[in-house]
């Protein structure tokens, strides 16, 4: 799954990595412990004809048509996102990218769960595939897609966020590309060999108390 991540790359680095024209944005907040149920940075087209923007979306997906008691998942699986009634409309028309520098997963060790930080070995940003929908309050809410873990990520957890390779970013964001099979043909996940990880302090367990860069230091 993906339940906690870090984003500390500055906007110029993200823009260079994205390689797509973006409307100007202000400085991004440095966050080493991004938790669900908060506003997070995303890249998306607010509608089919709008230019690409980097703005804030709520990490929790609940379409306005679903009602206030509907679930608010933070993740959607690649196995079901295109076919589930809850997600398929957003998959076809409202895809987004969530930038991150790495994410956290917990490995059971000697009766406790040891957090690990997973990131690109080359220090480049990650781009998580996401979907978004307008919430009842008119603001966007999103879910990050997950897939079966690959490479060294399998050592920590059975699933991982769907991080896309550079050539997949533009088609994933294309609002006019709606066919499921075509999307599958042109969108590919990041090479798993680029991912590395190490154990970190359990201070990451409490987002309200831990937000500094020391969270990603090897334990």
UniProtKB/TrEMBL annotation:
GO terms for molecular function: lyase activity; peptidase activity; single-stranded DNA binding. It comes from the Bacteria. Keywords: Covalent protein-DNA linkage, DNA damage, DNA-binding, Hydrolase, Lyase, Protease. Its EC number is 3.4.-.-. One of its GO terms (biological process) is proteolysis. SUPFAM superfamilies: BB1717-like. InterPro entries: SRAP (IPR003738), SRAP-like (IPR036590). Belongs to the SOS response-associated peptidase family. This is Abasic site processing protein. It comes from Halomonas urumqiensis.
């Amino acid at each position: 799954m993906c339940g906690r991540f870090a984003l500390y790359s500055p906007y110029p680095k993200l823009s260079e990595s994205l390689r797509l024209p973006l409307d100007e944005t202000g400085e991004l907040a440095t966050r080493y412990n991004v938790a669900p149920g908060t506003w997070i940075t995303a890249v998306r087209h607010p509608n089919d004809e709008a230019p690409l923007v980097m703005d804030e979306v709520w990490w929790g997906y609940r379409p306005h048509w679903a009602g206030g008691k509907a679930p608010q998942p933070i993740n959607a699986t690649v196995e079901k996102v295109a076919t589930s009634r809850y997600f398929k409309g957003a998959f076809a028309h409202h895809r987004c990218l969530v930038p991150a520098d790495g994410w956290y997963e917990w490995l059971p060790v000697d009766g406790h769960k040891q957090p690990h930080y997973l990131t690109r070995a080359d220090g480049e940003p990650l781009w998580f595939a996401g979907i978004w929908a307008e919430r009842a309050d008119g603001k966007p809410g999103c879910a990050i897609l997950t897939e079966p873990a690959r490479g060294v990520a399998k050592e920590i957890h059975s699933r991982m966020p769907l991080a896309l390779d550079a050539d997949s970013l533009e088609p994933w964001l294309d609002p006019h590309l709606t066919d499921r099979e075509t999307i599958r043909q042109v969108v590919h996940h990041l090479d798993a060999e680029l991912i590395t990880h190490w154990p970190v302090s359990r201070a990451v367990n409490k987002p309200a108390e831990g937000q500094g860069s020391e969270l990603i230091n090897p334990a």
